[in-house]
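Marked as duplicate of an earlier ticket. Keeping the data here for the record.
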Amino acid sequence: MDFHNILIKWYLRNKRDLPWRKTVDPYQIWLSEIMLQQTRVAQGMPYFFSFTKEFPTVKHLADASEEKVLKLWQGLGYYSRARNLHKTAQYISDDLNGVFPDSYKELLKLKGVGEYTAAAIASFSYNEAVPVVDGNVFRVLARYFDIESDIALPATKKEFAALAQELMPKDNPAIFNQAIMEFGALQCAPKSPDCSICDFNESCAALQKGKVNMLPVKSKKIKVTNRYFNYLILEDVLGNTLIQKRTEKGIWHNLYEFPLLETQEIVDFDVVSKKAKEENFSSYTIIGIEDYAKSTVVHKLSHQHLHIQFWKIKIKETLENGIDAEKLKTFPFPIVIYNFIEKQEINC
């Protein structure tokens, strides 16, 4: 079919020079695919190099501590990916003797590996004829064939997968999958694509009908919750501070943070002062509370907007488990807290 021939020719002329495209090693391809979930290539690339340098094989990753993995992942977000990555590495290393499953069906059994990631590894590493269907693929196919099916529905994913399977050359599925994703990322962009230079501008149904910016259709709305975090930064007479590990399920699981006072709304000095003295740190003698006003930030996650304020609380005593500034920076923090630490140069 002309579609896959035109697409692959475009890809060979325009593809980006990406490290995971130079290998069929399932470990490196798996690593890159997990990192690029919800993440732009430019952001994920440095992390890919850091991980492959620090953990050159799946066994190196399996043998590392979770804390080390999270520290290296710091700033990439969606930290459940890192935790699943680590657990899966341990499973492959310990239970599968370090050998990756070599089929789409078996890859799906790995923790943190969904249909898209399994298809990517299966086709790129083993040349299995299984289509990848991500946001880029939805967009390209919806526009080219003028498909108005709602991509938020599970049935639509099956529809697009069947279409991609039909279009895919069975003798070279890997290059087709790479090509259609790359085309969606570089040419058939989400907003204002330059259709005048598109290789498909004479056959794209959406372009002929003036519907390029209307497709694909996605009706599902994400409900955003607002939360209000007040981080209480203790400073004792030695300049040391305290941190704690987030052990509950939810955002930032197993990362570190300062003692947290979560409220129902943005609160002022009086509220923080009262709660700190009466509830959070009643066993200490507080000699001063200060608001880091310039560090107040709204940190936006996919389903939550975190309104974060930082408060310095000086105490008269010496903290039993106090941490100094040098040691503080060795722990894995959510990036918003790590940036605060770097910016403020906390003298703890």
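See parent ticket for discussion. The chain has 15 helices and seven strands.
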